[in-house]
Amino acid sequence: MTTNRLLAAAASVVMAATGAGSGIAAPAGVKNVVLVHGGFVDGAGWKGVYDVLKKDGYNVTIVQNPTTSLADDVAYTKRAIAAQDGPVVLVGHSYGGAVISEAGTDDKVKSLVYVAAFALDKGESVSTLIANPPAGAPVPPILPPVDGFLSLDKAKFAASFAADVDAETAAFMADSQVPWSVNALTGAVTDPAWKHKRSFYLVATDDRMIPPDAQRMMAKRANARVNEVPGSHAIYVSNPAAVADLIKQAATDAE
């Protein structure tokens, strides 16, 4: 093979690796993003955020947690982190915040993004944090557990969880709920990753599942950089661009 052909072959390899020539520029900063869903839903809700990030050149992995226990979900998330080829921005929605608070101490994780999420402190669980809601706060329509698993009242799902999502999608989310184990709610964080990693927090100001003031409290104690955006608890579905923007900010600022 001639020198020119060798150079051309090498250039092709570089272009393939970086996305050059594909119309997608390699993003600045961290390029790997791992998305962790919360309770009652699965990873499919991240589709809009995934599309934005992929279009901008990020490698995106979506964790499909069983939501059977915090330990199980942390294990699933750590496997996803281990599969990445470099530094990671770790993102959690709702209960997914508890998961990333525990799993995010992994050396590959450079920053954390909480999306209307539980940024738990040492010894806290979702159960302990929601045990005493503030006066006047909306009460999520959680039904009594069946065989140790929780679900939301389908008739009240849209108003509480997805008020700004189109009616057809909200109805599908209600009908495709993933049962959420009581064991997952009671799992306590041992060493909060936000005490060691740079953190970002998106407050959904119209959230009726986790009160916005509770989100602000958690963001403040985590010393997180905060974006406040009008939206329901399902803001990652209704406004994926706002969520992706904060993730990209975290990726750029991580290094």
Automatic annotation (TrEMBL):
<dbReference type="Pfam" id="PF12697">
    <property type="entry name" value="Abhydrolase_6"/>
</dbReference>
<dbReference type="InterPro" id="IPR000073">
    <property type="entry name" value="AB_hydrolase_1"/>
</dbReference>
<keyword id="KW-0378">Hydrolase</keyword>
<feature type="signal peptide">
    <location>
        <begin position="1"/>
        <end position="25"/>
    </location>
</feature>
<dbReference type="GO" id="GO:0016787">
    <property type="term" value="F:hydrolase activity"/>
</dbReference>
<keyword id="KW-0732">Signal</keyword>
<feature type="domain" description="AB hydrolase-1">
    <location>
        <begin position="33"/>
        <end position="245"/>
    </location>
</feature>
<protein>
    <submittedName>
        <fullName>Alpha/beta hydrolase</fullName>
    </submittedName>
</protein>
<dbReference type="InterPro" id="IPR052897">
    <property type="entry name" value="Sec-Metab_Biosynth_Hydrolase"/>
</dbReference>
<dbReference type="InterPro" id="IPR029058">
    <property type="entry name" value="AB_hydrolase_fold"/>
</dbReference>
